């Protein structure tokens, strides 16, 4: 009884000694919600809280972002970071805010680390004696304290200057350097740019408009204790987006390896959409797995056709709807879907997909801006966003939708999306992750 009393009193002491504070979190549609949280709450705790409050599916892609609107920059707050420490660095009139939204690329580094360290951009250190290949080097980096050297070309703009210049950059554990003589890595040619033990890396939201960059893709470096948020330098990608991603991920891993190791423990090792779905044949007395790719493709096409034949019955409770009833149902059925974004422009679609992660299969469907009768499927593949027009096709007075000039037809957009979630068809990859707007 005495021990129980001591434990009980200790728990009450912890409860009353916890300081609660109010934070305000925004969603993609700029709605906000204020919640009271403990002072030691982490970014992952905030995500879990809003997942529960909004009844979201926890697929490990929900992320908390720090956004600085007047500088048009933002960054991912790592799972282990204290949210109150992040807010303590904000100025009184900085208008900084927290955003809760999807980032499908959040743990992509742990799934495909080699994609973030292209072989031509990673130097094998002398300590390996040249006996490691590229894959072994990355695995050693992930399991030890060794640090590969990353290098490549970027355009840079220093604060206070208007012009952008191309330089050869080198990222090492000691910091970021650029060469003032071509691609030379000699110490006398390397000029120090930034050291990251007390700095954060932010991505640009409007690189062209705000900083006059050649593209919107870029990043900047900010000292954590700097309240005026003046970046040391702003960089933009010279040729491919990969190096920008490599750079940011590399800094995160090198400087915050402990926190990322904690995040790794909650990483889903298998993707339901990618690894758990197999082609099945249910036509016989016993079901079987279809291993022949050609047979699986023909079954998929036939399944798509059967969806089209059965669609009228699915859309109406009476079993034999008229064309007008089917048309009205097909309109209503996609408007309510989370992947449909109605009057979203091409640029807005690209921005939304970029925010939620440039990985294969991230998609959304929107109205076409050029043709009111058609729709557009915006899809990310190989870190590029591609747009496919969904064309309406009429046959015997009935309206269908198609991505391949009428060869494969669907009575509504829901059928089309469901089909391409299971079959690649004419697309470069399957539809895996939809971009959805949430309201807090």
Automatic annotation (TrEMBL):
Gene3D superfamilies: Phosphatidylinositol 3-kinase Catalytic Subunit, Chain A, domain 1, Pleckstrin-homology domain (PH domain)/Phosphotyrosine-binding domain (PTB), SH2 domain. One of its GO terms (biological process) is negative regulation of insulin receptor signaling pathway. Residues 1-27 form the signal peptide. InterPro entries: BPS-dom, GRB/APBB1IP, PH-like_dom_sf, PH_APBB1IP, PH_domain, RA_dom, SH2, SH2_dom_sf. It comes from the Eukaryota. Keywords: Cytoplasm, Phosphoprotein, SH2 domain, Signal. The keyword Cytoplasm applies. It is found in: Cytoplasm. Residues 21-105 form the Ras-associating domain. Residues 339-435 form the SH2 domain. GO terms for cellular component: cytoplasm; plasma membrane. Belongs to the GRB7/10/14 family. This is Growth factor receptor bound protein 14. It comes from Cyprinus carpio. The gene is LOC109096950.
């Amino acid at each position: 009884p005495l021990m129980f009393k001591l434990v009980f009193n200790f728990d009450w002491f912890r409860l009353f000694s916890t300081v609660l504070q109010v934070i305000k979190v925004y969603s993609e549609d700029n709605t906000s919600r204020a919640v009271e949280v403990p002072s030691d709450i982490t970014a992952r705790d905030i995500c879990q809280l809003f997942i529960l409050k909004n009844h979201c599916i926890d697929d490990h892609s929900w992320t908390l972002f720090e956004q600085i609107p007047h500088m048009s920059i933002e960054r991912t707050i790592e799972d282990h970071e204290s949210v109150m420490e992040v807010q303590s660095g904000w100025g009184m009139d900085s208008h900084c805010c927290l955003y809760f939204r999807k980032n499908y690329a959040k743990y992509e580094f742990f799934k495909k680390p080699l994609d973030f360290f292209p072989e031509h951009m990673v130097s094998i250190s002398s300590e390996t004696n040249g006996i490691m290949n590229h894959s072994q080097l990355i695995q050693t980096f992930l399991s030890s304290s060794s640090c590969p050297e990353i290098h490549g070309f970027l355009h840079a703009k220093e604060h206070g200057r208007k012009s952008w210049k191309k330089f050869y950059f080198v990222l090492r554990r000691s910091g970021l350097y650029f060469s003032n003589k071509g691609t030379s890595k000699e110490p006398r040619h390397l000029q120090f740019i930034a050291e990251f033990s007390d700095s954060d890396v932010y991505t640009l939201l409007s690189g062209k408009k705000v900083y006059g960059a050649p593209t919107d893709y870029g990043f900047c470096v900010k000292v954590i204790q700097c309240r005026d948020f003046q970046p040391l330098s702003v960089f933009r990608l010279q040729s491919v987006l990969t190096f920008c991603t490599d750079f940011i991920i590399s800094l995160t891993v090198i400087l915050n390896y402990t926190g990322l190791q904690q995040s790794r423990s909650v990483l889903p090792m298998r993707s339901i959409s990618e690894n758990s779905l197999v082609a099945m044949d249910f036509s016989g007395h016993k079901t079987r797995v279809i291993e022949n790719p050609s047979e699986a493709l023909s079954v998929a096409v036939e399944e798509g056709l059967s969806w089209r034949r059965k669609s009228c019955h699915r859309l109406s409770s009476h079993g034999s709807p008229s064309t007008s009833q089917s048309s009205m149902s097909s309109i209503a059925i996609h408007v309510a879907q989370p992947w449909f974004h109605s009057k979203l422009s091409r640029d807005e679609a690209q921005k939304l997909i970029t925010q939620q992660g440039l990985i294969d299969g991230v998609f959304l469907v929107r109205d076409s801006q050029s043709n009111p009768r058609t729709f557009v499927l915006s899809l990310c593949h190989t870190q590029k966003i591609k747009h496919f027009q969904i064309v309406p096709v009429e046959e015997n007075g009935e309206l269908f939708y198609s991505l391949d000039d009428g060869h494969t037809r669907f009575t509504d957009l829901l059928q089309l999306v469901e089909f391409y979630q299971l079959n690649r068809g004419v697309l470069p990859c399957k539809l895996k992750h939809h971009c959805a707007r949430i309201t807090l």
